[in-house]
Amino acid sequence: MTFDISKIRIPPSPGIYLMKNSDQKIIYIGKAKNLKNRVKSYFLKNQNYKTTKLVENISDIEFVLTDNESEAFLLESNMIKKYRPQYNIELKDQQRYTYLRISNEKYPRLLVARRTREGKFLGKGKFFGPFTQGSSKLLTIGTLRKSFQIRICTQLPKKVCLEYHLGNCEGPCEFKDAQKQYPKHVAALEEVLKGKNQTKIFIQKLKDEMKHAANLQQYERAKDIRDTLIRLGSLQTKQKMEYVDNSDEEYFGIGEQDQTATVMNFRMINGVIRDSDKFFFDLVGDNTFSNFIFQYYSTHKIPKVILVSEFPGNQKLLESLLSDQAGFQVQILCPTRGKRKEIINLILKNIQLIHNAGGDPGLIELQEILNLSTIPKIIECFDISNHGEDFAVGSMSRFVDGKPDKSGYRKFKIKTISGRDDFAMIGEIIKRRYFRLLEENSILPDLIVIDGGKGQLNSALKSLQSLGLKTNCISLAKENEEVFIAKQKNPIIIPKNKQSLKILQYARDETHRFGVAYNRALRKKQLK
């Protein structure tokens, strides 16, 4: 039942709105300059499918007022990180990045920096990063602490510990010389973490020390230095800084297809493309390019220049917020010529390649999750609609490239099954559908989806087997959105924010709607 928007009072003020489902769980958070106008717009007719599904799940709406649009922007971003609503943009890649912290103790330690869900750092000191691909453990434990003689003890002891005797720490807890040298070690460590030329100087110094130790026949010492150099070499290749001080530009391109936005970015360091990412999000409510950029830079270093394929909404406001966050002036530009335009065109070319490959990013994702040999460009979904023993019908929706192909929808009167045996009915309509396609030599689907659980799936598989078909077939159980596949006992649970699940849900909902409409038409005809 759709939420009655007329029953609540909506203030015509700036702020954020929190949409909740029947369990009072927040499913979407948005912002607005005028809450009344924005929230009411969701309940107008002719919304896209994904917005319609959001509205169908709303049971309550809560409002938080702010003084202006800027405050609403910031509050929305923080609340999204805190509650992670189902329909909002969530950047999954954020979890790949790790930061390091040098504590502000008398003799600082090097630690992995911890963050809250809102992205704030815990603890005091200096922070470095982000680092990718789990390299932080290599840096902290395997390399930097030993290389720079950084202590690991949580509390400074009165006497030197095992780390001193192993040569990993000079013992500032006991020796005055070590206490004098310690700030120099920390300063050198900071330079390396910043990625400056000090790294090269430090490596050369170690090479000289190794050579000197070898000349003095101190082979154990030379071996230790050699091991340190190997680890530092690994550091240079695996430590991938997302941003350094002289990296002034980051590029973004956006393409939209089938109610989904695809964003791709290039990070430039000294004029060279050093990293790239792809992101997908539903075009629901306030899920816009502008919101994406702000969410992205809430956990990534901000460059001085952001280059885009099209200007985001609220460009000036976005520039102001990012400038305040970065501590320097940030520009958002849309290049029209030159090298910058060529890079943007390259990004858009890549996005087009993604779209052409599968028609919908979720189809590629579905192929990977279900381990299919091909992208499921043609999907046919089946359901049984029961209303008493006399009114049982079958329905089928057909999706091509992730979109409904309504001319391909089919409805079935149940002919061979009496009573309310859903399993047998599924078996009947599957057999009838694909026997006919085989007779007509028509194109078979890449994926068959059954609305139901393991029982419905097994019945469909038996019918396919009797026809000699090995077409990919799965079932989708509505209660917990479990995906059952052949020859696998446990179902697959696809996260709710995945595009692949949304395609399956869309196909299932369309099949159900089509079947219910046919069932209702038959009952009306009978009554007349």
Can you offer a commentary on this structure?
Strand 4 and strand 5 (110-112) form a beta hairpin. 32% of the residues are buried. With 528 residues, the chain is α+β, with helices and mostly antiparallel strands. It starts with 14 loop residues before the first strand and ends with a helix. The protein has four domains: 5-88, GIY-YIG endonuclease; 98-238, no CATH class; 249-358, Nucleotidyltransferase, domain 5 (2-Layer Sandwich); 365-527, UvrC, RNAse H endonuclease domain (Nucleotidyltransferase, domain 5). Strands 12, 13, 14, 15, 16, 17, 18 and 19 form an eight-stranded mixed β-sheet that branches. Residues 132-140 and 237-247 have low confidence and may be disordered. The longest helix is centred in the C-terminal third of the chain and has 29 residues, at 499-527. It has helices at 35-41, 49-56, 69-83, 135-147, 162-165, 176-194, 198-215, 219-238, 289-296, 315-326, 338-358, 361-370, 422-440, 454-466, 499-527; strands at residues 15-20, 26-32, 60-65, 98-103, 110-112, 125-131, 249-257, 260-269, 272-282, 305-308, 331-333, 378-386, 392-400, 403-404, 410-413, 447-451, 473-477, 482-485, 492-493.
